[in-house]
Specification:
heterodimer; A: 103 residues; mainly alpha; Helix Hairpins; 3 helices; B: 633 residues; two-stranded antiparallel sheet
């Protein structure tokens, strides 16, 4: 059975907007990071799907996914480090509580 | 010696540096003798240069270095040594030396003595550069330099307001004249492509430039000269300049700096001769200034102001001589005037010193017995000023009047003759009020004393000059100075010396007029016939005009100073309200914008994320719409 491209795009879009909604509504910093991860992987899914579909023309889309992995790993490392140091300093990980930079 | 001519300004420059740098802390009173020695050394070198020029070195250019080189335009720092500049070098250095020595006595107790000698040395340096320069641009450097030193020295006692205002006035009026000079040299460069005197005069002969351009050059240069040499309409700074120390008045405002306008015109004589009508303007302005200033001098009571107006008047004579085509006579009068007017000023200084800084002649009187050396030297100088034979002033002034009468300017000559009578009157009046009659302030009189020898010896030396300097111009029109200066100031016109009978008649006439002035003056002030006060009452209207100096200062205040003030006020308002206002409002707008916009920075991460997503959606939809439009076709 061949899964049509549209299905992949649909799942990818669904994942992306779930992640996006998570980033917007959740307050826990760790959950926000997880949601960002979800959005990245939604993009990965789309890239892989297109790469597979148009592999005869160009397969570089799947190479791009590897780059996204690396960036995601780095992002999580930095993000968690920020969350950790924020927690050490203020004992909160609720992003709404951290607003010293407000104008 | 000519090759060493650069030593002449080098000594005063060195003295300026030494006095200026080490004077306040270490040298103090010693600065006076250091500066005097330096100027004395300059005088020795200058005399050597003059001797060599007299020996036949007619015209030498001594280059020092190339100053400006742009394309094919270049200006050198070079000295032009010819009879004219050699004479000026000697006059400037010798008179300066005597005045420097005198200043050692006059300024001995002033706490700013090091400053005084530093600036005076700088002045001599600048004056020598002005005299030696071989081009208009280098001359302008000296021209500005003497103007600056004049400003500094007039305002020497800047703790009091009057010297400070006088200095400002002198500076501003000189600047107005300098504007003319600048226009002049720019036009010279445009017309001749060079600023070098010799190049300009050579090209003048090769290619006859348009009369209009030449006249513009000459009138502009002459306007510069009226500023520096205190002629109408820019003369009024000179009487106020008397607020400076008396040696400064003697050196800068009588003997040297104020003659630099005369020197400029004499130096540019080929241009003026070619421009024709410009010379008539010079003669006319000189004559009017001469009689104008002499009439003011009749009624002044401040001894230095009498001398100041007398200087303006005598400078007018020099310009008259230049204008009627007798430049040698002008330089001759410049030389003799440098001696006798410096002497009159130094003598006045001696009197002021003796009278505990009193300058009002109404409070003097009877000082003859107390100040014999000052009295006799001033009488000699006064006689020279009044043109009594055989004193120096007789030969030079008589020659000017004679030149005016025989060269086709009978009216100007007659005015010159009349001015001679006025001159004799006011100088006799001044000397009588100071030295004769009863002491009018017994207290001041009691404490009056003759000056120290360091001051009287320069007086005697200058008196010798005032007696003997006339010898260089004897016989009239064919004396040493005339043949000597001829290569420098030749006008091209073959000058026919008038017959002896004419010369004698003119000389006799001028002596009669002078004696008449003296007799009337003596009769009025010694005998009271007619009483001066009665004369003043009889001609009250005119007397009041004279005492108020023809209201020229008031006129200038009204016409120009007030206008300048109003303009400055408008400019100030423009600056405050428009320029500063613009900057301030711009800053205010930024602050207000920041106040509004900072509310966007909530500090809540969710808001930022929402903004990013909204932006993303916006871009997506916008691009989607665009893509649909493009690809949908």
């Amino acid at each position: 059975m061949i899964v049509p491209l549209g299905a992949y795009i649909a799942v990818s879009a669904a994942l992306f907007f779930i992640g996006c909604a998570g980033v917007l509504v959740r307050r826990n910093a760790v959950v926000i990071l997880m949601c960002v991860e979800l959005m990245l992987n939604a993009a990965n899914l789309a890239l892989v799907a297109f790469s597979r579909k148009y592999g005869a023309v160009d397969e570089r889309g799947s190479v791009f996914v590897v780059f996204v992995f690396v960036i995601a790993a780095a992002e999580v490392a930095v993000g968690l480090a920020i969350v950790l140091s924020a927690y050490r300093n203020r004992a909160v990980i609720d992003v709404d509580e951290i607003h010293q930079m407000s104008g | 010696m000519i090759a060493l001519v650069w030593l002449v300004p080098a000594f005063p420059l060195a003295a300026f540096l030494v006095c200026g740098l080490f004077g306040r802390r270490w040298l103090r009173q010693a600065t006076g003798w250091i500066a005097s020695a330096a100027v004395g050394a300059s005088a020795v070198v200058a005399l050597g240069v003059l001797a060599e020029v007299m020996g036949g070195a007619e015209r030498t250019v001594v280059p020092l270095y190339r100053w400006i080189a742009v394309g094919d335009f270049s200006v050198d720092v070079a000295a032009l040594v010819d009879p004219l500049s050699a004479v000026m070098l000697v006059v400037v250095t010798v008179v300066s030396f005597l005045i420097f020595v005198y200043s050692n006595g006059y300024m001995a107790h002033d706490h700013g003595i090091h400053r005084f000698f530093a600036w005076l040395s700088l002045f001599v340096f600048a004056m020598l550069i002005l005299v030696m320069a071989d081009n208009y641009l280098l001359m302008f450097v000296g021209w500005e330099g003497v103007g600056l030193c004049s400003y500094l020295l007039i305002g020497f006692w800047f703790e009091r307001p009057e010297p400070y205002y006088a200095a400002k006035k002198a500076f501003v009026m000189n600047r107005i004249g300098d504007w003319g000079y600048t226009i002049g040299i720019i036009t010279v460069f445009l017309v001749f492509g060079s600023m070098n005197f010799l190049d300009v005069f050579r090209r003048l002969e090769e290619s006859a430039p348009a009369q209009g351009a030449l006249t513009l050059i000459c009138l502009a240069l002459f306007f510069g000269a009226t500023g520096k040499s205190a002629q109408l309409p820019l003369y009024s700074w000179l009487p106020d300049a008397m607020e400076g120390p008396t040696p400064v008045s003697a050196l800068i405002h009588a003997a040297t700096m104020v003659t630099s306008g005369v020197y400029l015109v004499a130096r540019s004589m080929p241009l003026f001769a070619a421009a024709g009508s410009a010379l008539a303007v010079v003669a006319l302005v000189g004559t009017i200034t001469a009689i104008f200033a002499a009439t003011i001098a009749l009624v002044q009571f401040d001894i230095k102001r009498v001398m100041a107006y007398s200087t303006v008047s005598q400078l007018g004579y020099m310009f008259l001589a230049l204008g009627v085509g007798a430049p040698a006579a002008a330089i001759f009068h410049l030389v003799t005037h440098a001696f006798f007017k410096a002497l009159l000023f130094l003598g006045s200084g001696s009197v002021i010193h003796a009278m505990n800084n009193e300058q009002d002649m109404r409070r003097m009187g009877g000082l003859r017995a107390k100040l014999p050396v000052t009295y006799w030297t001033m009488v000699i100088a006064g006689g020279a000023l009044a043109a009594l034979p055989p004193l120096a002033g007789f030969w030079s002034k008589d020659e000017i009047v004679g030149a005016a009468l025989t060269n086709g300017y009978p009216l100007l000559g007659a005015v010159g003759l009349l001015t001679g009578g006025l001159t004799a009157f006011y100088i006799t009046r001044a000397l009588w009020l100071v030295f004769h009659g009863q002491p009018r302030e017994p207290h001041l009189y009691e404490h009056a004393h003759e000056s120290r020898r360091v001051m009287t010896i320069p007086l005697l030396a200058l008196a010798a000059g005032a007696v003997l300097a006339g010898a260089i111009g004897i016989p009239p029109d064919q004396g040493f100075i005339h043949s000597f200066l001829a290569p420098s100031v030749e006008t091209g016109a073959t000058e026919q010396a008038p017959p002896l009978a004419t010369i004698l008649t003119i000389a006799l006439g001028s002596v009669v007029v002078s004696v008449l002035g003296i007799v009337v003056s003596l009769s009025m002030y010694a005998r009271g016939r007619p009483d001066p006060a009665a004369v003043a009452r009889a001609a009250e209207g005119y007397y009041r005009v004279l005492v108020n100096k023809y209201y020229v200062d008031e006129l200038y205040d009204h016409r120009f100073v007030d206008a300048a003030r109003a303009f400055a006020g408008a400019a100030w308002a423009f600056d405050i309200h428009v320029i500063d206002g613009l900057a301030n409002r711009f800053g205010w707008a930024l602050v207000m914008g920041g106040t509004v916009l900072r509310r966007v920075q909530t500090g809540i991460v969710g808001n930022y994320a929402l903004t990013i997503v909204a932006g993303l959606l916006f871009v997506l939809f916008a691009y989607g719409g665009y893509a649909a439009g493009v690809f949908g076709r």
